[in-house]
Specification:
This protein has 340 residues and is mainly β. The chain folds into 2 domains: 105 residues, Immunoglobulins (Immunoglobulin-like); 185 residues, no CATH class. The protein is built from 5 helices and 22 strands. The N terminus is likely disordered. One of its GO terms (cellular component) is cytoplasm. May play a role in the development of the central system. Pfam families: fn3, PHYHIP_C.
Amino acid sequence: NKSQDSGIAEMEELPVPHNIKISNITCDSFKISWEMDSKSKDRITHYFIDLNKKENKNSNKFKHKDVPTKLVAKAVPLPMTVRGHWFLSPRTEYTVAVQTASKQVDGDYVVSEWSEIIEFCTADYSKVHLTQLLEKAEVIAGRMLKFAVFYRNQHKEYFDYIREHHGNAMQPSVKDNSGSHGSPISGKLEGIFFSCSTEFNTGKPPQDSPYGRYRFEIAAEKLFNPNTNLYFGDFYCMYTAYHYVILVIAPVGSPGDEFCKQRLPQLNSKDNKFLTCTEEDGMLVYHHAQDVILEVIYTDPVDLSLGTVAEITGHQLMSLSTANAKKDPSCKTCNISVGR
């Protein structure tokens, strides 16, 4: 009888974790802690953590789903850091649940009930991750070509609207979700997109554009000069052979400058592999990288009177548009390894 009683006591239920807290969230790690009753606590040898990507209502039901991932971890003091056990994606919603476990002599586990399910979202890329992207982009940037103007293509209606409703000044708008999924500027940074690429044979902007038949051109020094700071924003491709680099130009001390200072690697405007402003014989001279397509975001309003608007003679190449374009996650050139 006594042995039976002790057997029952031995199998007493393990405490169920409750009041789960997630903290110290980065793009590829987090800390987890919880509370549990002290009863039978000393029998706990392991924790089981079940982590899953939160289901997107619009996700393709037939697409391969992430394998449900259950982490078996030795019972360590809480909070416990979860890093490298999964390839956690940045800026992604996850669900997590926990149970306590006791490993038996035969190798099997006695487990508690599952805790409640908690939801959390991983963070954006940090400056450390962006610096890794920056270093990858530097490898393929190529030689520097001279240029003299920044330009922005739009439809005629856009420029008419700016004149009528915004007192002739183009206004910053929130950047879309194109590019790297973990980019801290997507959906957050406000700015105006410009290009500066030139045709190799003419040294002038190309006559084609994906964004509209009307082009605003502005002298490079009006946007990029010693009173602005330059930041690296992103590096990506869209299942294509060519790559894009996003740079941010922010007037010193502006709200855009403060935003970037905290989140993006700053570049030396006179000496970097993508976009430079140097002085020669008292004049400012500008160069851009030849082998990447630069997308330049300027963070302040820009008055149309500072440049010219004219119709382009080329085609509108919609296929080259990067609006909300998804980055190719398998490209070895422009992806970094986070999560391990």
